[in-house]
From TrEMBL:
The keyword Transmembrane applies. Pfam families: NACHT. SUPFAM superfamilies: P-loop containing nucleoside triphosphate hydrolases (SSF52540). Residues 137-260 form the NACHT domain. InterPro entries: NACHT_NTPase, P-loop_NTPase. This is Energy-coupling factor transporter ATP-binding protein EcfA2. The chain crosses the membrane at residues 7-27, 33-51, 423-447, 453-474, 495-514, 557-578, 584-604. Keywords: ATP-binding, Membrane, Nucleotide-binding, Transmembrane, Transmembrane helix. It comes from the Bacteria. The keyword DNA-binding does not apply. GO terms for molecular function: ATP binding.
Length: 675
């Protein structure tokens, strides 16, 4: 829903809360609290009843109109452009660090496009006009590992977005490693859009099925990155699926290593109507320009002996290594500190071949970007400072764990539970919620008995905790989720109906236990919390770039809101029952209500399960407790990259190297059981 509708609900709820509080404070002035609270409750029902049809209109099931789709496309373009621009800065794809990549036609893999050879060559400076002039605007970009395929795809998408219009096709960068070809490609793209940009579900602004229609009406230009990361046994099905989902007349970009794409082409034929190009190795002049331009004048002199060696031995192992943009970045990163000396790479005894040089550069990445706290005074030429400092041994251990457990090179924060055995996580989370339920219900029963019959409170709390644990276990299983998903009826879309049912249920329970006034204030508090959660549960800003912190903070804020309202409601009930002067009983009521509100709100939120998984992994030393801060630091330093709200390793070679380090050091880190 729009901000105006959210604000209307918030204003109504705040007004009711203020009026209820005024009645409780002025009871000594002759105001009957029961009559006052009954009047305020009736006013709340009237206000929500007036707002409810307006709110439900925002959840219309009518398909998106052309104007709504154009608005969604424009907002999505702003979000994608902002993220890609930030990502290009993190990956240092702009001058003076940008390598002038070039490409040309390749005879190694057949192409299904009659483009002339002179149309299949170009450079990164003119990638956008080159792509637009390409017949059919369908191209397969080939190159070995670390040749710059993903960087070229990012720069192409960013360039196409610079003059984007509402009726243009929206380039979206999509890593194929997480796609299972058994799922239709269009369905997968739609799912990615809805997960990475949840504001597309805003039916008031963009109508229903906005993401689906953007894909079905060919308003999205798929930039499919890393075809080679699809499992080998699924690549034939993947190429067939791409041909089926994206017609020959629809623009498309696909990147892959030559062997992976060529093996699939040999069995089912090439991508229809697509040209095929291959990235060229980095030229020595371009390498020299980048190494000198990314350093100060004094620091640049350190590279001269190495550059001189490359000119005398252009076919040697060092020249082969530095023909890859990935290895160029690793070399600049490792030797960014002016105290280091890149001429050590010239030692033939230590580095007899290309593989040894590459392993050396990969092995020094973590130490270079996460300097020791003892070296805090050191400064580098081009690396940004982190928001906090992490010891290199810790950072390496955490990154090794992620490399061994991260599926498809991706880590969505809401799926951190995948890194923990699902049974342990489910039991741990359910038992935690059950204990909090037992404590909150026990405290409430103790309030009823004025702390005189604690045995009853203990038994009642234990029963409630057991039921909460069992309910959480059921709801988190696949069978339980399927059952809850099937119980969706029209009344569940009504803010009025849901608020009245929840508020009445809690009000009757508290009324039976405490009396009419506590029952009214408790039921009203729950109804207000439900209405606020109903209205604030979805994002409205599509144009803002997605981030892990932003999507998680929305979940966390909703939980905090419900905790506060429940706590105030039960605390107010305790004040009515025992008198405001007995602050101990009031705080006891507030604590009980806050705990109950936390349980009811956290049970279905991804933030809770993320927190449980993070705490478990932090206790075992697998990951830091401040996980998102660490991931963002690693992202800013170039070890990770961000796609949507997900983190990935910068390159598959980086992840493979760290995973191999885990295998070599199997005694230091024992992986958990497979989730």
């Amino acid at each position: 829903m729009s901000i105006s509708r959210q604000r209307a609900v918030v204003v109504a709820c705040v007004l009711i809360a203020v009026l209820a509080t005024i009645g409780l404070v002025w009871t000594d002035n002759g105001i009957n609290p029961t009559l006052w609270l009954s009047t305020v409750t009736a006013l709340f029902i009237v206000l929500i009843g007036v707002l409810d049809p307006w709110m439900r209109n925002s959840a219309s099931t009518d398909p998106s109109t052309p104007a709504q789709l154009a608005s969604a496309s424009t907002g999505l373009a702003q979000a994608v452009s902002a993220q890609l621009r930030a990502e290009s800065e993190v990956r240092e794809l702009s001058r003076p660090y940008q390598l002038p990549l070039t490409w040309s036609a390749t005879p190694l893999v057949p192409a299904d496009n009659p483009a002339a050879p002179d149309q299949l060559s170009g450079s990164v400076d003119a990638v956008v006009p080159w792509f637009r002039a390409l017949p059919g605007r369908r191209v397969v970009v080939l190159g070995p590992a670390g040749s710059g395929k993903s960087s070229l795809a990012l720069l192409l998408a960013l360039g196409l977005l610079e003059d984007f219009g509402p009726h243009d096709q929206l380039p979206v960068l999509l890593p194929l490693g997480s796609w299972n070809p058994r799922v239709d490609l269009r369905t997968w793209i739609t799912q990615r859009l809805r997960e990475d940009y949840p504001a597309l579900r805003n039916t008031e602004l963009y109508g229903s099925y906005a993401a689906e229609l953007l894909v079905d009406q060919r308003r999205v230009l798929p930039v499919l990155d890393a075809f080679d990361e699809i499992p080998a046994n699924l690549r034939v099905a993947a190429l067939q699926g791409i041909n089926k989902a994206v017609p020959p007349a629809t623009p498309l970009v696909l990147t892959s290593r030559p062997t992976a794409y060529g093996s699939a082409v040999s069995r089912v034929g090439p991508l229809r109507n697509a040209s095929v190009i291959e990235l060229d190795p980095v030229e020595q002049d371009a390498l020299a320009t980048v190494l000198r331009g990314s350093s100060t004048r004094v620091a640049a002199s350190r590279w001269e002996p190495l550059l001189l060696h490359l000119r005398h031995d252009p076919d040697g192992p060092l020249a082969e290594t530095l023909s890859s943009p990935l290895m160029v970045w690793l070399a600049r990163t490792r030797y960014a500190d002016v105290a280091t000396n890149p001429t050590e790479l010239l030692d033939p005894g230590r580095f007899p071949n290309r593989a040894s040089i590459e392993e050396f550069l990969l092995d020094g990445l973590v130490t270079a970007v996460f300097p020791s706290l003892a070296d805090e005074g050191a400064r580098t030429d081009h690396l940004p400072a982190t928001s906090d400092m992490w010891e290199p041994e810790q950072a390496r251990r955490w990154l090794v764990f992620l490399a061994t457990r991260m599926q498809h090179r991706e880590l969505p924060w809401w799926e951190l539970r995948r890194l923990v055995h699902r049974y342990w996580l489910t039991v741990l989370g359910a038992v935690s919620l059950g204990l909090m339920t037992a404590l909150s219900v026990g405290l409430m029963v103790a309030l009823v008995n004025r702390l005189t019959v604690l045995s009853t409170a203990t038994v009642t709390g234990s029963i409630a905790g057991t039921l909460a644990t069992a309910g959480t276990l059921f709801s988190t299983t696949s069978r339980g989720r399927a059952a809850s998903a099937s119980v969706r009826f029209g009344a569940a879309r009504s803010m009025l109906v849901v608020s009245l049912i929840s508020g009445t249920a809690v009000g009757l329970v508290f009324g039976a236990l405490f009396g009419a006034d506590p029952g009214l204030i408790s039921g009203l508090s729950v109804a207000i919390a439900t209405a606020l959660r109903f209205s604030l549960g979805s994002p409205v800003e599509l144009s803002r770039p997605p981030s892990a912190e932003a999507t998680m903070s929305r979940d966390r804020a909703l939980v905090g809101l419900v905790v506060l309202v429940f706590g105030i409601g039960v605390g107010s009930a305790a004040a009515l029952l025992f008198g405001a002067g007995r602050t101990g009983m009031v705080w006891l009521g507030f604590s009980a209500g806050a705990l109950l509100g936390f349980v009811l709100s956290a049970m279905s939120r991804n933030w809770w399960w993320f927190s449980v998984a993070r705490a478990w992994l932090a206790m075992r030393g697998r990951l830091p407790y401040r996980l998102l801060e660490f991931l963002e630091d690693a992202h800013q330093l170039g070890v990770l990259r961000q796609v949507g709200a997900r983190y990935q390793f910068r390159h598959a070679r980086v992840q493979e190297h760290l995973a191999q380090a885990s295998a070599d050091e199997h005694g230091a880190i024992k992986p958990d059981k497979k989730p």
